[in-house]
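From the shared-data thread, chain only:
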Amino acid sequence: MIELRHLRYFAAVAEELNFRRAAERIHIDQTPLSRTIRDLEDQLGVQLFMRMPRKLRLTPAGTRLLKESHKLFIRLERTRRVVRATDARHRAPLRIGIADGIAQPKLSECFTGWQALAPETPLELSEMSADELAAALRREEIDAGVSFGLPEDEAIAQEPAWNYPLMAMLPFGHELASLEKVALADLLAFPLISCRADRQPGLVQQMRDIVRRHRTELTITSEASSLAGYVTRIAAGMGVGLADAGHAATLHRTDVVSVPLQEDERINTWVLHKHQRFGLNEDLQRFLTHAKNLH
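Structure, as tokens:
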């Protein structure tokens, strides 16, 4: 039976018209190369080369076989590309759940970078609440999640991905809004707007941990269920707020002023996945590594 190996070896000899150069080109010894060419001639029942002292010449049969071999190699390469393209179009997507209404630039950067890194594996994104994210991970309805953090769950791994500095969020015209930096203790002297713990448990927990380091007594004037509701309350002068620099940059509102804090306090964004007894699949592992290495 003629194999592709026979034709590739033959093409090398036919193009070089020299066994030594052909052997060097395809990285084998001359002896097995010569044996393969003899085997090919025996199987075809024709002579492919005229062997003269210090010289090789193609026979008419050899010339025709070289032409047909080139056509075959081209068709094989086209077939390879078509098969790979079909696989890419129909490959199972990487399913990512996004909780807590996250709209940070680094989240978009993460997904843009992934599409450049692994164009053969598309993304399927779903927005959901923190509770829905945890349930979807446990049921393996999604492969990974992005969140400010979930309550501890032995079935779910939570790994830090990136962080942003915490900033003061003030209504336009507020007495602290003209400062270059705001001390967190000064900000917390004003009534604070918070998020609802049942909607953004990870964000609320991070905020509470930070606030407790700077002030023991606090007035919470209102709790918001969404980023839109949070910002609306601040803009309306119902209280002051806190937000990471990523979301502050996303807002671009004239009625809300974001001011850096004097303290270097940060909000972490996490990538999550279900623990797998036999390890994570390759695409998911690559995505997690990519998300944790954003700069």
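The chain has a mean pLDDT of 91.
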